[in-house]
Amino acid sequence: MVNTANATRADIGVIGGSGFYSFLDNVTELQVDTPYGAPSDSLFLGEIAGRRVAFLPRHGRGHHLPPHRINYRANLWALRSVGVRQVLGPCAVGGLRPEFGPGTLLVPDQLVDRTKTRTQTFFDGVPLADGSIPNVVHVSLADPYCPAGRSAALKAARGRDWEPVDGGTLVVIEGPRFSTRAESRWHAAQGWSVVGMTGHPEAVLARELELCYTSLTLVTDLDAGAESGEGVSHDEVLRVFAANVDRLRSVLFDAVAGLPAEGERDCMCAGALGGMDPGIRLP
Q: Measured in Å, how far apart are the chain's first and last C-alpha atoms?
């Protein structure tokens, strides 16, 4: 049975689709308000391997939010407000190298932002509804992903006989369209590994809230410039993701079990603000 005192609390967040939580027993749906508006959907809280986990459908339950319209600030704030301090962010991506074909699981260690319209900080000096004003704060993002989270994700994948790619660069584009062939070839020429639409600004905002953030990228296609043919199609992406979702879910759940226990984080993420005053009260 779920301890009702803990039913609305969690220390781990998973930002992904409903397929990651829909079969769990005793899931609590929780609507959360934030100073930045509504998150993509309710939080769905449950238990995995004795850990309390909050699931958030990134695009909403009906997948009605395109990447550029997701309220990333509200999503990360909502997760932290229920106690989350570690976040796993699975996403579908295109491979930029022939060896990173459909079905590849890559756990990136670097990030390139090529988005155009997304708000990517909490600390913009704009007053909140309660009258508090965020200070301008500059956090380090030299290494955008949590080393402990990456280690747990890699170990979980190997334990499921899915040899992951350890490291690589995720380049995030605005979307919702896919890349042109010229753009895709340019991305590949830079030495980047995979391309997606949702990994930024999640990692940045998580760092500002001193959350550990780990991306797990599932390659669903070779991007337009990486192969001949008609290029990427939405149907192809959905088909490959559906074929791998059970496997990915197992890896995610094993990764949850392998994350540091609450109160035992000793990574850079936990002290990202370095004592700087954000000017607002973090949840």
A: 28
**Distance separating alpha carbons of residues 158 and 163, to the nearest angstrom:** 5
Whole-angstrom CA distances from 28 to 17, 20, 283 are: 16, 14, 20
Exposure on the CB side of residue 33, measured as CA atoms within 13 A: 2
* Nearest CA-CA partner of 271 in 136, 111, 85: 85
Distance CA 278, CA 133 (A): 9
Question: Does residue 223 carry a catalytic annotation?
Answer: yes
Active site residue 25: no
Active-site annotation holder among 41, 113, 223, 254: 223
Give the active site residue among 11, 41, 113, 221. Answer: 221
pLDDT in tens, 59-71: 998 889 999 999 9
Query: pTM for the full model?
Result: 0.93
**List of residues 6+ apart from 30 with CB closer than 8 A:** 8, 42, 43, 44, 45, 54, 82
Short-list 245, 225, 229, CA closest to 237: 245
